[in-house]
Every structure is written in C-alpha cells, then in structure tokens.
Amino acid sequence: MFISLFDLHFFPFQINEDNSLPRSMNEINISRVTEFVLLGLSSSRELQHFLFFIFSLLYTGILLGNILIILTVSSDALLHTPMYFLLANLSFTDMCIASFSTPKMIADFMVERKTISFEACLVQIFFVHLFGSGEMVLLVSMAFDRYVAICKPLHYMTIMSRRVCIILVLISWSIGLIHTTIQLAFTVNLPFCGPNQVDSFFCDLPLVTKLACIDTYVISLLIVVNSGFLSMISFLLLVISYTVILITVRKRSSASMAKARSTLTAHITVVTLYLGPCIFIYVWPFNSYSVNKVLAVFYTIFTPILNPVVYTLRNKEMKAAMSKLKSKYLKPGQVSTA
C-alpha cells in the first residue's frame, strides 16, 4: 500500500501492541510524535545536580577560553598569520559545537522530564553535523598549513595567502552544509508515531532514526556511510600529512625535529580527541548507547575546552600576546574613579 508524504504528515502510522505496523487505514490512529524525551546522562537526581555544577563550569570555560583566543589573535598584529587565522576559526567552531546542545543539557539537569520538540530536535541534528563536519575539514586545513610551513618554508606566504586561508574556511563551512543537508534529508520525512525516548542528552541522528515507524536499516546504513566516509577521509588526510612532515624534518637538524614534534603533538592531541569518538560512533556499528553518550560528551564538551589549553599553554607566541592583552586592559595600579 502506497502512502504519500502528505498522508504521513497528517495520518502517520502508530505501532500496534505487538510492535507491528498497521495493516489497513482503519488501524491508523491520528497520532504524530510532536516531542522527544531525552534520557540524558543520568537518572539520579543527586548526580544530576552535581553534573549541573560541573558542566556549567565547563561550558563557561569553553566560552571564555575560545573567546580569549579569538580576541588575542584579532588584537595582536604578530598573530595575523595563516596558522592563527585558522586557529581563531577553530575556536569559533568549538564554541558553536559546544553551544548547540550544552545549554539545554545543563537546563535539563534541573527538570524531571527532559523534552525537546520535533522541530528543535531536527535543528540540533542540523547543527551538530554542520559544525562537526566543518571542524573536521578545518583540522585538515590546519594540518595542510603546518605541512607547508615545515616542508616548504620558503613558499609559505605565497601558498598560504590570505585569499587561500579564506577559501579553506569557506570550504569547511560548505562541506559542513552539504553534509548536514544530506543527513537531515534522511530524517525529516520519516514517520514518527510510537517510541519517542532518545537515550542521549541531545538528538543524535542514529538514535532518532531508530524511533521511526518503518524499517530504517537502509537509512541507518546511508547515515553511517555518509558520516563515516567524511570522518575516515579526514583522518587519513591528517595521518598522511603528519607522516610526510615527520619524514621531511627527520632529514634536518635535531632542533627542527624537536620543534616539529612539539607543534604536531598539539595537533595530534586535538585530532585524536575529536575524530576518535566521531569515528567510533558513526563507523563502528557494535558500540553501546552508554559508550556513545560518553564519547558524545568528549567531542561536544571536552574537546572544545581542551583546544584553548592545547594551543595556548604550549605556544609561546600566544602566551606573549595574551600577556600584552592583559597589560593593555588590566594595567597594574589602575584604580577606577567615580
């Protein structure tokens, strides 16, 4: 029996008690899922109050740390280079990744029933894949920048011109937009009329599609292929670029090797913490929901707060620029007068 999208919207299926689909239009009840229930990270009320405090501090740290990086790069002329331009864009993307779900998760810790409307759920799916895939491409761009700086230093400013840097950032957002549009197309027309509990703290696409009233095996496979392909391609490009860099500097002095290792350690740390959970969630099909929730916390909260630490505490230029920024706005001995 063929049912049009119009019928699915106004007369969606409702699962029978034996978990089977209705056999005739007479069995179809006029019911459509208008909201989803997020099960969150824990069902313990005492633990939720503790998590409210912890994640409030973490989210505040994410905003302050990444805003500080953006302000520092913007205010210091010595940091107006391709590497720091890409770093500032990474900080902006990190704030976006942390902000699409964290504020709601923090607010949900204080309520018993954690609900999200169908439309807001689709919005979360749209933004998590927009920002997430955009960051993957941006990390590849930063690896390319390091490759040019270390392997082709004499041509660095020619290759990594301001125009090229802007194009790299636009490419990251464009790929993110294309990727999330494809992912959302798999979900927006699915009929939801039965279970509405999402075992996570945000609307994760694989979990939401499993709640549809039809067999979603093919759709789930397409989602894995789409996300997995982008994650694996980004990971392979990063591995190739870092390998070429290490092979190149190996032939040079020990001082060059030490500097390259110090630079690459920061990048590899960020890549591992971000791409590792993404690949595990979207490529490995046998992981449990509880593991997925922990990994989702890593790439939505811990990675955005670790990026400022990794890229500032290990970077002398950033620390020097932050000291100048501090002395500029917080002059010692300055006393405000009424």
What are the secondary-structure elements, in order, as H or E? HEHHHEHHHEHHHHH
Low-confidence stretches: 1-30
Total number of helices: 12
Q: How helical, in percent, are the residues? A: 55-70%
Per the CATH scheme, the topology name is: Rhopdopsin 7-helix transmembrane proteins
Query: Compute the gyration radius: what is it?
Result: 23 Å
Return the CATH class: Mainly Alpha
| Coarse morphology | globular
Distance linking N and C termini = 78 Å
CATH architecture classification: Up-down Bundle
Question: What's the main sheet like?
Answer: 3 strands, mixed
Ordered list of secondary-structure elements with their pairings:
Elements: H1 5-10, E1 35-38, H2 45-75, H3 82-99, H4 102-108, E2 115-117, H5 118-151, H6 156-159, H7 162-187, E3 197-198, H8 205-209, H9 217-250, H10 254-283, H11 289-313, H12 316-329
Parallel strand pairs: 1-3
Antiparallel strand pairs: 1-2
Note down, in words, how this protein is organized.
There is one protein chain. The chain is an all-alpha fold and 338 residues long. The chain has one domain (38-320): Rhopdopsin 7-helix transmembrane proteins. Helix content is 69%, strand content 3%. Strands 2-1-3 form a three-stranded mixed sheet. Residues 1-30 have low confidence and may be disordered.
